[in-house]
Amino acid sequence: MPKEFREWFEKRGFTGEMDIDEFCVRLERAHHEAIHGGGDWKLGRTWPGEWNRMIMESLYEAEAEVGRMLTRNEVLEFVGERMARYYIPMNFVPWRSGP
Asked: pLDDT for 8-40, tens place per residue?
């Protein structure tokens, strides 16, 4: 879940032990770059299929369709379905910055 939208996720219950930092996955560098549109993230954000752009646009549309904020579980289910489409494993690991 894109960290730049942390506040959006927090409003839907991703706090404390369910913080978005608990839902990270390890990917090979090439796979990670591919889902973000290549090595240049700024250029990648112009691609409609770029992960952060796609996931947030899809979540906004889902909320508009149901006419309310999605619950945390609905967001998890929704994101999980898209992870499968992008061949992203559902093996979550907590984010750890640094070495």
From this structure: 999 999 999 999 999 888 877 777 777 766 666
What's the full length of the chain, in residues? 99
Burial of 37 (0-12, 13-18, 19+ CB in 10 A): buried
Domain boundaries of the chain, sorted by first residue:
3-85
Distance (Å, rounded) from C-alpha 87 to C-alpha 47? 18
- To 5 degrees, how large is the angle CA 21–CA 12–CA 17? 40
Its pTM stands at 0.78
Give the C-alpha separation, 58 to 92, whole Å. 21
Task: Tell me the residue type at 88.
Answer: I
Phi then psi for 76, rounded to 5 degrees?
-60, -45
Q: Give the Cα separation of 92 and 75 in Å (integer).
A: 15
